[in-house]
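stage 2 :: seqdesign
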């Protein structure tokens, strides 16, 4: 709902009061991966992409921009996992107030299952998506063919 033009806007206190009035419905705490764990995820995807390229006979010497391609895709895949975890692990304010959240061991198992599933989904998407591995392979192939043509013309 928007405020009609010329109407004074609500004070910060009024807005805070309105938000807290529906906090049990609208306020959530979201799980995020940070620090060493975040870097572990990026490193995993870099290694996964490098292994996928190696299996196709492609190495870093085959294209001058291959390393930035790998780094960019690894960060995008890690972000997919980060966003998926945030969506799957939301805790309502009321859950924390009444301590109705699941026991810690069960949460760890749920989190492990979700992380594994999201990592596998990201890998499968990268391998099959036209913007993933096929795009990198096409770019490298085009570059190598143009380099061979330039060498033949010289």
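stage 2 :: out
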């Amino acid at each position: 709902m928007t405020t009609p033009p010329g109407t004074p806007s609500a004070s910060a206190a009024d807005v805070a009061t309105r938000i807290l009035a529906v906090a049990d419905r609208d306020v959530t705490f979201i799980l995020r991966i940070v620090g060493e764990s975040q870097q572990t995820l990026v490193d995993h995807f870099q290694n996964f992409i490098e292994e996928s390229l190696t299996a196709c006979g492609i190495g870093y010497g085959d294209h001058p921009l291959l390393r930035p391609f790998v780094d960019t895709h690894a960060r995008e895949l890690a972000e997919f996992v980060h966003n998926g975890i945030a969506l799957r692990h939301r805790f309502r304010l009321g859950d924390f107030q009444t301590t109705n959240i699941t026991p810690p061991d069960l949460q760890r198992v749920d989190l492990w299952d979700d992380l594994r599933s999201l990592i596998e989904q990201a890998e499968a998407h990268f391998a099959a998506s036209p913007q993933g591995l096929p795009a990198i392979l096409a770019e490298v192939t085009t570059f190598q063919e143009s380099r061979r043509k330039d060498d033949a013309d010289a």
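stage 3 :: structure notes
- The mean pLDDT is 84.
- The radius of gyration is 24 Å.
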